[in-house]
Amino acid sequence: MRVLRLGTRGSRLALAQVREWIARWRDASPEAGEVEWEPMVLHPRGDRDKRTPLHLVEGSDFFTDALDEALLEGRIDVALHSAKDLPDELREGLSLAAITPLEGPREDVLVLHPRWASASSVDELPAGLRIGTSSARRREQLSHLRSDWELVDIRGTIEERLARVSSGEIDGVVMAKVALTRLALEVPHLPLPFVPHPLQGRLAAVVREGDEEVRRLCAVLDDRGRWGRVAIVGAGPGTADFLTLRAERLLREADLVLYDDLVYPELLAGRTAELVAVGRRKGKERYTVEEVCDLMIQAAYAGKKVVRLKGGDPSLYARLEEELSWLRAARIPYEVVPGISAFQAASACTEIPLTSREGASSLLISTGYPPERALIPPPDGRLSCVYYMAGEEFPRICARFLEAGWDPHTPAVVVSAAARPEQTHLSLTLEDGARWTGSLPRPALLLVGATGVSRSWWEDRPHILVTGTRAAPWRARGEVVHIPCIATVPRRDGRVQEVMEGLSSYTMLIFTSRHGVAHFVDRLLEHGDLRLLAGMRVVAIGRVTAEALKDRGLVPDLIPEEDSAEGLVSLAAKENWRDEKILIPCSSLSDPFLQEELSRQGNTVDAVPFYDTVPAPYPEALPLEVGAFDEVVFLSPSGVRVFRERFGALPPGIRIHTPGATTRRAVDDATS
Q1: How confident is the model at residue 452, as a pLDDT?
Q2: Which of 343, 449, 528, 648: disulfide with 386, CB 3.0–4.6 Å?
Q3: What is the pTM of this model?
Q4: Per CATH, which fold does 227-340 belong to?
Q5: With contact defined as beta carbons under 8 Å apart, do 39 and 19 qualify?
């Protein structure tokens, strides 16, 4: 029998955690009968010093130092901690072997003196209460919740804290509910609307580095192997073409995307991940920073791949520091992916160099909101200045430049919605800017001191909205924004199975779209291979459909010159198709025109839905400025219908492209 010495603190709660660890380990380990755990009580500084407030404590090993030393000296084999008490960095020579799964509650509660037991919520409690807490995090949360309470630094064991409440010295104390559960304590308490420490309720086992056998024994209770990861990703300032390759890969792989309001909708349209809007603009927020962090951490604990998507670059005005602090505390694997910043896009898309050989050699970046916080430097002809969040405030910022002695004729350019179809810019001087009384769309940046111009290659190019599932053919025409309105999902019903089993009875196979090709061939390969089509004529309507067939190893026998169902019907009449048995793999929403007309000519036609056409996912919290586009492309009637339901009627003056008469009729019906 091997004996493992398990280091622990000496409180009742710590010893209850030891019993929990041993019981859970015996249930989980196949070697339970071969190992005996021997608890050894140690006393870290945090237990010996019960007077120093935690926010005054130096170092993060206040509750672990004695256990760390015992491990390094070989007096114990494993140190068991509350996971939230782990230091930011383990001492050299130590290694984290396990963090247990959460069992039991994780929330914080307010334990009250019996005289307040009738209260059903924190809001019902009076002002002036003396509430004890030791955690700096909880202290800050309490001060926001009830600024009319007196907060008292309190240290000691659970029993010592409860004694101060029952004696009336304080009116209540904040505790982790899991501590009460582990000690089976029934005391009056109220729930607190706080986000607790992410590791609250979990246990952590630390071992000596290199002690792989002990690490292996502890690993049966290590939850980290099932955790996911978090990526904080810069979305860039506008359309998807400005997204980095790494960001695109992470979005494709993501299970959950938490996105800000400044993310352009194209980046998320059609994504299969769960999309949650967590944006905050000018003080209006859907979630607090703590709530956003808790969302991504709990999702990662559940095994999900999480993307926290931020407009521009995550290191500029994006609360990166707070979110990284939470992720480090949670011990979650994470990465930070840079994005093209709004100031870079504003400069590039308005042809304004922020530095140049003969002009500016230095760059200042500052907030512009509120304007009093904007950093205004002394006059300097070798300096370019960029101000974020300056849409409504730029006249006041320009005025402050003049007050600082800058030349009134210094260029001042406001760029709104950089790298988006609705981008616009205003080239002024500081003098003109200070007098400006108009309005500009947000988000907006102010560029001062750089060479102001009144041209923009980006604004001069046509901006094209493609609503179908394929945008590549349109990219040569201008700046394409691809927001698919529809998606396809395979059907698995009995009719498809029946058709595949009787495939040899057909003489002709007609494909009307690349989706029909994809879903049919996928099912075909489940039953065999392309030889099952031997003897059939294969017809493709349109070049795109024909290319899809070639990509799957099939060369169509026939492609009508007219790229439409009507063109194929005319060709069939001209060639006198009769007595053909025709299969048309199609969508459940397909127009019956082709089936009806070919049947009328004396053929047996089965138009069989191999897939359903459904609305593509869209980030509903992000509006799309449809009026900013010069052209809109519709590739199917169902796309027209979904577009109308999602975005309303098309503004006048936009050029519309459709591939055939059926889609054109749908557009005409929608705009009439």
Answers
A1: 59
A2: 343
A3: 0.89
A4: Cobalt-precorrin-4 Transmethylase; domain 1 (3.40.1010)
A5: no
